[in-house]
């Protein structure tokens, strides 16, 4: 009886909250019964989301770094069967939460930073993808769920990354902290690849290798993939990341950061080789080629050209390092008779014949299982797209891939313009050049492999490009911040000298 009276007293005093909890419980059980574990999990997580929203108002940047961690480790968690929501929802929910918090509590956020060419280009791409809703060439009708699932992954996540970085990475200190955090995550991924090579794979990774044996065991060489989806994604990410940190090491004025970025860049370069992803070599070359133009300095162009020109020459025209399996694998990137390249060309030729009848593509979000067995475009869905650009081409047609290329070029050229003409301070120009070069490196990787829209690349590199568009607005603030950092560095140097002199007395 006592327990019943306690329940009555609690209900009387907390009637509203008790009713909400009961309602959530009832909805969760109903969804478990009718829709399965996914819908049940979504309802159960609502109270957690409420707590996270409350914490977000108080610890905004903490939530941003949670997004970075989730984004970076999401695919590894998926491999280990640790996720209970659709994969992309984990980052999308945090991004939407960050955007909503910033819009509600906008005192410390500068919404004006969002007005730039990159937003215009993203709106163009998202607008086209919205028009694709009316594409019914496969006879599926106006299927909102298929289209919405596709547009979230193909368009909205680009816009989310842009908005989050505009709002949360908009000061010199925050940009610097993001870069350091990015470097730490990259170093961890290199460590994990080293662990796979020298200690071994865990049970989940071995299970993955069974299904991916054809692509990850090539001529007796293992292609390591760290915590990423696959070796191609890992290798291209490492190539783009190493570009970022090499350029930052060249342009930073803070001594400890120069050392830290050099170490990180070299580690990422090792990770690129460990992946055995030959496309990553060309991504790396493309990134530094752009940097030589953006640097506007012969002092940079000549040594960079000599160092990386020698690197390419050794791989392409010599047999130096032939005893190393990773170098042997990368050297095949320069083989004109490579079998896998020929297969990709044949796939593209086959797709071209079918795509003539689908100028708007088969539809965003449409997969082979959605198309009727007798439909003429069904066969096309089974031809491997091999690259992100081909995947977008198949889903949106020649009109869509043209729109995507044009909007990507607008973003890239706009960033180049900012770095080349608008930024004066060498170190802030280095930050701009680093992310601009990484962006073109990633896109070249997306032309050859299906990695452009993969985790964790969107948030890292589209977010990084967003920073480039913020830099002109904060250059004066950057100069003040950098001056303060250099003063601290000089004080530490003087203290060390005084201690050394004192020790000699």
Beta content? under 5%
- The shape is globular
Quick check: average pLDDT? 82
Poorly predicted spans: 29-40
- Following the backbone from N to C, one meets helices and strands in this order, namely HHHHHHHHHHEEHHHHHHHHHH
Q: Count the DSSP helices.
A: 20
**Strand order within the widest beta sheet:** 1-2
Going by helix content, strand content and strand pairing, the class is mainly alpha
CA radius of gyration is 25 Å
Query: In this structure, how is the largest beta sheet organized?
Result: 2 strands, antiparallel
Total number of β-strand segments?
Answer: 2
State the end-to-end CA separation.
84 Å
Helix-residue proportion? over 70%
Question: How would you characterize the overall build of this protein?
Answer:
With 505 residues, the protein is mainly α. The protein contains 20 helices and two strands. The termini are far apart.
